[in-house]
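ok so for the tutorial part 2 we go from a plain amino acid sequence to predicted structure tokens. step 1 is just haveing the sequence, like this:
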Amino acid sequence: MSDSTVTQSEGREEVAVPDTVTGRGARRPFGRLRRPGRRPRLWFEVLLIAVSYWTYSLIRNAVPEQRSAALRNADWIWRAEHTLGIAVERSVNHAFDSATWLIVGMNYYYATLHFVITIGVLVWLYRWHPGRYAASRTVLFATTGVALLGYYLFPLAPPRLMRGGGFVDTVMVHHTWGSMASGDLKHMSNQYAAMPSMHIGWSLWCGLTVFALASVPWARVLGLLYPAVTLLVIVATANHFWLDAVGGLLCLAFGFTVARLWYGALPYRLPSPARHPGPAPQLPSP
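step 2 — the prediction. this is what the tokens look like for a chain of 286 residues:
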């Protein structure tokens, strides 16, 4: 029994693909079938992620560090936030800096969980939701890729580097290892790539993925808390403005749009098990 076809008024034919969840026909965009979800090859995924992150870091750090423009943009962001009534970053920074144990913990949170949690969610998707892995990874890659445009087109100094901003660089003050943008490591990283915030873009991707796919309530709650706590951390450590987080959110929306157009559905609505290619079952003739 072959897939049914529907003839359009323009004379084109569109293949109706059975929905594995509901059993109803679902049409793929652009009039052609997307590749079915398969369990990706582990070696390929590890290599792809490693090469992609290396390329991203290389391009990000190769963007000219336009100090004057970055400082002007920081002043503009700060004034805009005052106009909007949300310029409370300095107060948050000083309040958390007064509790040494807390701000030191935030420094390590900023430096490590950004990578650890993201990799952990990728591994979880690969192991337990292989049919959704490729689409979810596409969201993350597209989000990160478009962020490079922000770094190039809108160099931005973080609050801790503002002239006369009165912010505390918590890594420098408390002598903690915690940022590629402070201490002896600052020459290895672009100091003026604050907009958009990929700490927010990545943490939102992680949080939404866990919330949408986790089966236990406490994990879903943690999924929602993770980007919220990350937002507090990036502000308390004076690494980002609130509006940098908005930039990260917009990049994530772009990533979801790319995946939706390519796969015909949001990653979380795709079938969970990987579909393995094979001969179609033969139905007995009537």
